[in-house]
Amino acid sequence: MSKLQFHQFSCREDNYGVLVYDRESGKCISIDAPDEGAVLAALAETGWQLSHIFVTHWHFDHVEGIAGLKDKFNCHIVGPKQEVGKISGLDETLGDGDEFKFGNDTVRVIATPGHTLGMINFYFVENDTVFTGDTLFALGCGRLFEGDGAMMWESMRKLAELPRETVVYCGHEYTLANGQFAMSIDPDNEKLQARMKLIADLRKKGKPTLPTTIGEELDTNPFMRPDDSTIRENLGMVGASDEAVFTEIRTRKDNA
Ligand code: ZN
Ligand code: FE
Q1: Which ligand neighbours the alpha carbon of 118 most closely?
Q2: Segment 213-231, tens digit of pLDDT
Q3: Is the pTM of this model over 0.90?
Q4: Active site members
C-alpha cells in the first residue's frame, strides 16, 4: 500500500470536495465533482494532476463538474452501476462489494441506498478511509429522497461495521444543525455534549467539522444509535426495532 494524501475543500453552498492523491503512481481522484472551478482551484493549490473522478450519486451538486473536468483532463470516471442512466460520462460502473485497485490500494465499493437508490460509497481499505457521499454525515444522515427508512438503516449498518478508526469524509457541512437536532433526542450523551462544543467552536472560526470517524459517529450520531436505551426512552420506543427507531429519528429530523 501507499499512504494516500487527502485534500478537502468547501464549495457551492455547503458541499465538500476531496482530492485523493497517490504519490507513488502520481494518480489523483476527485471524489464527486461538485464544482469544476473549485476542483480546478484545489488541483492548482496542491499541484496534483487529475486522473479519476469517483461519483457517489447522481445529484446535481455531486456531478456538475464532470463534463468540464473530463474535457480538460480526460480523466477516468467511475460511478454507480444503478445510476448509469442518470449520470453522463461514466467510463466504468460499480456495485456493492466490487473491489479494484487504485495504485497499490484496494478500493471497496459499499452500496448505501436510501438518499438515492443507487448511491455508492468508496472505502479505501489499507488507508482505512471511507467516502460516504450523502449517506452518512457528521451527526446525521441523508434525506430519504428515493429509498425508505429500512433501506437507509441497512446502509448505516454496513458503515457501522467498518473499524472505529475509519476516517469518514462526506458530501456536506451540515454538522451544526445535525448536532442541534441530535441534542434534542440524546441530550444527556456526554460525548455528544463535548462534541457540540468543539463543533460550535470550529464553525465560529469558519473551519470544517470534517472528516470524522466511524467511532465518533457510533458514539454521538443518533442515526447510528437507534439501539441506545436512552434515545429509545426519549422517543417512547423502548421495545421497537432498530429500523423503526431509525425511521422515527429520520422523520423527526425532516420535521424539525
Ligand atoms: Zn445528494
Ligand atoms: Fe448533496
Answers
A1: 1
A2: 999 999 999 999 999 999 9
A3: yes
A4: 57, 59, 61-62, 115, 134, 172
